[in-house]
């Protein structure tokens, strides 16, 4: 039997419960269309509430044994899953290209990067350890108590990735959860489900005990609340839009949350910057995967005196981008669906109507929008504040450093920012004033490498991802006090 045969029956993909791939009893399937050809290429199960209950029960039972499984055995299984991902890379890449329109090279990178992340997590996981505290370090105490402080798993982790990285953002949740001794219920994004189910098969085949990793499919709007509110769920790790994140936060009650949400990452360019390097970084940061990245450069704040020069360099870089098919590794490909393309078009039209200047012509064919650079964007325009998740880059001219900081911080989001300057002292001073999770100095905004901490302030999220940080988030402190 070929590696992925059991996860589907013709076009219909199954869900994974207690080590078995199954069709849902709902007889309700969701049709998936490729953003490339508008063709119905797959169907996924819309699982029922009863099936979710069965998944949760299986996860809980499996976790009871898994929490006592030696760390090195957990790590070995993760290494196996990573190896299987790499062995089956070509088929997974094909799916990613077809399902979410990811350029072939980026799809390959996503699979390999995920395998690296899983291996790194396995290595980090075997170093989960605690500490010993003595009572006499606190005033008024003798050394008559020892606190042995360790870390224990939380239980069943509900993992919800978005469409744009259905494999890597599943890996960054599943691997730390498992190595830390938790079971996982992965709710796949609807568009992206087929990619995520291929990812899950690598874990299934690696030999994790039945029930330890489960995958449910269905629309977030239908099964999301039921999953989030489920009493068996001990922790939720989510990546997606701020709107969905807020809804999860409202429903989650006392469950710990890791929420990685939207962004409006600013690149701030000063007079003393290397403008060629800045332009290259900005264009690659803004337009890779057609701007469908949380960390995409989503606005440029540039000092008036160098704005024309930087704009021309940016335009020259944008002209090198290839528009076309992800299969042919084009830079700019169809957006995920028509709504996404309509939204991006609306932002561009609003800016144009309010006086902004399009430096590259607006061209749209179905859901493919050619890369657009918009100059003279002002604070009155939606494009200055909204996250487009598409191939458009607004340039906002600023009069001073203070103006740049004010506009950077004026966003509801606080994921990342980039500062381009040759003056490291200035960069450090300004980075302290910008309210985001990460400031990049002389480089584009980006999440990786995946062991770096990744977090957002304000509407960009709660909690920190990154291998060690995720393991910490998916365990809790347990203290044992010995009274002598
Ligand atoms: P989304 O619409 O919020 O969906 C994300 C995930 O949530 C999907 O799996 C979705 O399932 C699920 N979902 C929807 N409604 C739900 C509910 N009520 N309860 C539980 N889950 C629910 O986001 P997206 O369009 O896929 O992704 C784009 C957004 O994600 C952008 O805003 C981007 O900035 C953000 N993002 C952030 C990061 C980060 O690390 N900060 C990384 C990547 C993306 P369905 O597909 O079935 O609706
Ligand atoms: O879309 C959000 C991803 O977490 C961004 O990751 O910066 O490596 O593309 P990236």
Task: Give a count of the beta strands, DSSP E runs of length 2 or more.
Answer: 28
What radius of gyration results from the CA coordinates? Answer: 24 Å
- Which architecture of the largest domain per CATH? 3-Layer(aba) Sandwich
Main beta sheet, described?
7 strands, mixed
Broad shape: globular
- Report how far the terminal alpha carbons are from each other: 61 Å
Q: Number of helical runs?
A: 14
Average the pLDDT over all residues and give the rounded result.
98
Which ligands does the model contain, each kind named once? Answer: NADP nicotinamide-adenine-dinucleotide phosphate, glyceraldehyde-3-phosphate
Strand order of the largest sheet: 16-19-20-15-14-22-23
In terms of DSSP E residues, the strand content is: 15-25%
CATH class of the largest domain: Alpha Beta
Q: Would you tell me the structural class of the helices and strands?
A: alpha/beta
* Tally of discrete structural domains: 2
Contiguous runs where pLDDT drops below 50 for at least 5 residues = none
């Amino acid at each position: 039997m070929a590696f992925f045969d059991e996860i589907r029956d013709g076009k219909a993909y199954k869900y994974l419960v207690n080590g078995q791939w199954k069709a849902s009893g709902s007889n309700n399937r969701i049709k998936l269309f490729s953003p490339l050809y508008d063709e119905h290429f797959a169907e996924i199960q819309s699982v029922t509430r009863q099936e979710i209950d069965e998944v949760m029960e299986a996860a809980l039972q499996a976790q009871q044994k898994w929490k006592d499984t030696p760390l090195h055995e957990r790590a070995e299984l993760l290494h196996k899953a990573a190896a299987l991902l790499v062995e089956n890379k070509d088929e997974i890449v094909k799916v990613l290209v077809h399902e979410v329109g990811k350029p072939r090279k980026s799809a390959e990178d996503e699979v390999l990067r995920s395998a690296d992340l899983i291996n790194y997590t396995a290595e980090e996981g075997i170093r989960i350890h605690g500490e010993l505290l003595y009572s006499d370090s606190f005033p008024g105490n003798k050394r008559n108590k020892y606190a042995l402080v360790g870390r224990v798993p939380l239980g069943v982790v509900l993992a919800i990735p978005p469409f744009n990285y259905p494999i890597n953002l599943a890996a960054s949740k599943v691997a730390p959860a498992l190595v830390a001794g938790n079971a996982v219920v992965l709710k796949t994004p609807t568009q992206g489900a087929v990619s995520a189910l291929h990812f899950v098969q690598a874990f299934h085949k690696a030999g994790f005990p039945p029930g330890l990793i489960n995958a449910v499919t269905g629309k977030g709007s239908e099964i999301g609340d039921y999953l989030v509110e489920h009493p068996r769920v001990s922790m939720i790790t989510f990546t997606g839009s701020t709107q969905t994140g807020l809804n999860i936060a409202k429903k989650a009650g006392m469950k710990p949350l890791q929420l990685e949400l939207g962004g409006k990452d600013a690149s701030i360019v000063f007079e003393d910057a290397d403008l060629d390097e800045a332009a290259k970084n900005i264009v690659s940061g803004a337009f890779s995967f057609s701007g469908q990245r949380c960390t995409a450069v989503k606005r440029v704040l540039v000092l008036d005196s160098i704005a024309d020069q930087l704009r021309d360099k940016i335009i020259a870089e944008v002209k090198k981008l290839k528009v076309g098919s992800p299969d042919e590794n084009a830079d700019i490909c169809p957006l995920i669906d028509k709504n996404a393309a309509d939204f991006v078009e609306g932002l561009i039209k609003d800016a144009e109507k309010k006086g902004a200047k399009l430096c590259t012509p607006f061209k749209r064919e179905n859901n493919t929008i050619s890369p657009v650079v918009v100059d003279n964007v002002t604070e009155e325009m939606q494009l200055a504040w909204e996250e487009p998740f598409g191939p458009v880059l607004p340039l906002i001219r600023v009069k001073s450093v203070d103006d740049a900081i004010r506009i950077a911080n004026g966003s509801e989001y606080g994921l990342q920012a980039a500062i381009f300057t040759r003056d490291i002292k200035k960069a450090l001073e300004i980075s302290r004033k910008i309210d985001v999770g990460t400031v990049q100095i002389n480089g584009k905004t980006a999440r990786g490498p995946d062991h770096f901490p990744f977090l957002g302030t304000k509407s960009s999220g709660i909690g920190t991802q990154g291998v060690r940080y995720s393991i910490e988030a998916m365990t809790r402190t347990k203290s044992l006090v010995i009274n002598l």
